[in-house]
Amino acid sequence: MIERHASVVVQTFVRVLTPLAQLFALYVLAFGHYSPGGGFQAGVILGATYILLALAFGRDILDRKVNQPVCVALGAAGVLLYALTGVAGMAGGGTFLDYSRLPLPVTPVRARYFGILFIETGVTLGVAATLIILFCRLGEQESNR
Amino acid sequence: MNYPYWVAVGLLMLGLYTMIAHRNLLKKAVGMTIFQTAIILFFLLLAVKRDASLPIVSGADVDPARFMNPLPHALMLTAIVVMVATSGVALAILIRLYARYGSLEEDVIAERVASDEADPA
Amino acid sequence: MRAHLPILPVLLPLVGALLQPLVGLASRHAAWPLAVATAAATAAAGIAGLLDVLARGTRRYSVGGWAPPWGIEVVLDPLSAFTVCVIAVVATLTLLAGGPSARATYEGEEPTYYSLTLLLVAGLLGMVVSGDLFNVFVFLEVASISSYALVASGGGPALAAAFRYVVLGTIGASFYLLGVGCLYALTGTLNMADLAARLPAATGSPLFGGGIVFMVVGLAVKMGLFPLHGWLPDAYTRAPAPVAAVMAPVATKAAAYVLARVLLYVIRPEGLPVGTTLAWVGAAAIVAGGALAATQVDARRLLAYSSVSQMGYIALGLGLGVQDALVGAYLHILAHALMKAALFVALAAAVLDGRGPTLRALRLGSRMPITGACAVVAALSMIGVPPAAGFFSKWYLLQGALAAGQPILAGAILGGSLLAVVYMYRFTEAVWFGEPRAAGGPPEAPMPLLVGLVALAVASVAVGLGNAALVSNVLGPAAAGVGR
Amino acid sequence: MSELILAGLLVLLVLLAVVAVRAPDLLLAVITLGAYGFVMSLIWAVMGALDVAFTEAVVGAGATTVLFLAALLRTSRRRSPAASPLRWVALAVALGTGGAVLGVTSGLPRWGDPTSAPATHVSPRYLVRTLSETATPNAVTSVLADYRGYDTLVETTVIFTAGLGCWLLLTPRRR
């Protein structure tokens, strides 16, 4: 199936590119307020770095680097972070997902700004973990079923 | 001129035809993607305003006619995610089907399913 | 908490579903109790919401603090609160009763299974309480995608059924979305209340008719309405027994509810023959589904086709649109959910005992008298024997058809009951007199299964006995003002 | 000028869709579908929907292609050339639907009309007030994450549901 790519050039390139791509994902997440992009795109980019790794170092690296049940739980935790941000708005006296009532020491409008950042972080986590699971499962070697 | 909408209609028909007429399940999945993007195209065409720019605003006194309608953009971001999620599940099912029945052709699978159901092993 | 009652039926199962994989890391045995507790809390919130609505009127809840139509609102009125209760209560009982069967099917994967079923419930409830057309689409997809995966998890033949379900389900959802797009292009809004206010000025446009037709066709696919029911029989027949027990009673009901909501409360297409068409298609579904059910030898397929027939009753009532017919349709949503849940749970008990799925091998009576008796109560409700709930829903539908001056449709309702006598007689006969199997194992079904099953059967009769109170307090007000 | 580019891209889009559907080799079909997604993302960019373009590029052209390729690796590239008995039904359904949609499009506002209902009702508030109400200049982000944040919560739930579904389907049972 997907085998270890022998070329040292490719492996070195991927080794350098991976952290850069992950950094870019963080940039996309943080600057979604001002420019196109946001949590979802950041999550996909973050997840895609793992495909790069698999392409360069063989699919086995995913089995070594990724604990899949934990990855599923992380995906759930991402969505949960989103939902709990909404519940925090309820705790502050607003309706569900009312970020202006988040218990933060800032003005309601700034609180909305931060609320968006929180939920986008949750989206990134949820999407990245889910995509990694998808790639791990869909790319799995033929099993004995 | 409303010609861009005609492209959406064409893609819609092509996708729908493929989903029903093609016997290969992967082709059906391809048709499904085209069908869904046709509807996304339809929505996004609604967002266009002539001579308007990206919906990223600065300063006060914003004239809404000068910016694209952001609502369909936000809706279709969601629709694209739904599209890839559906594809993911469809492909997972397809992989299991191939592992079990050794084919992606609808009629071959149907035959083997029938013999499976007659004699569940 | 009262302030948040409208959102709780969505929030509770969603959070419960997300907790499953996290708790699953620590213990796999907590999954089932956690799922039942989540569903029970959701049902409690739903009942509290219904009581609140009945006491103090419709509740509108602006998610995110944004007033509609800019934000998304969640609406609890008598109809949505009632439907929430139906789905949440039935899901609680089927999750409870399905536990032993799910353990046998999903050994080691229970957290994933229960997470997906709770996501299905959250999706269905989200569709019901939503006051925004696009939001309904997104929840519809949560419910659909979890259903696809749950059906496919049966492996083998279930995979083929699930792929067909994905293709047809996607066509249905996309048609719905296209209809929403037409109405959005026409009015610029997605909020149901805002749309209802702005549409009357725009009924002349082709976008109006197109929007309605695409939405109705899409929802008809999702509710398994004949002749667009192609995905349903295989999916319900081949899905694992616990999945069928959870899905079959409620999955199509949310789509039927959205159809009612859109047609009767939002769009109200007076100039177009949508209602009449729907009523006649419903009549065709009653007869065709019943006739197909009567010829089946597989018990699950028999029940699946009976679902096609029973969804026909709901469509017929919604299409007629007169007060009694609407009450009958709403009551039938409840009655059918209860009886179909009981029947699929009884089948799950048989499968657990190594019987079925063919009618010949069913024979519950001799080894499982309580399970068998409950199945028979549900079967009598399906036929429409008083005092079971199924009698009263059909009674109201019949009244409605006569009040609307449609004797042929009334005939279809009666004919459907006659067909139900045929197929349910075959089912009941199989339950009591089928081919005996070698004895072994415990004589009755496991306790949780029995508790859930008995509760469903008792509820079927209780709803029938208490139908007058239910109709005058809940369903009458829900149908008031929209009936023709 | 941009209108010409758009027209060209739309023509290219249709051609790629036809190739993806007609290709006898499934690998070719999948690769063409990736190109189709890429052209689609260019179209969104030309139409001023950069956020959608970005997502389409990473999801439509990127993730979807990878998923299809992964599926292809575990199944088969070949497909049987025999025609389906359903093709006339499919043609009738497609033509009927297409005709209906085409009939409906005659009621659409003129393309790009800044006075149409979607342009004048509901949406202007997002543009006018996104800065003062959410401190977020990108109106798409504020609609997505705040005004309609409920949708986005459910959207994230959808993708998680799909991940969970694949996990359930493709993990060998431990028994």
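qc> The first helix of chain A runs from residue 8 to 30.
qc> done
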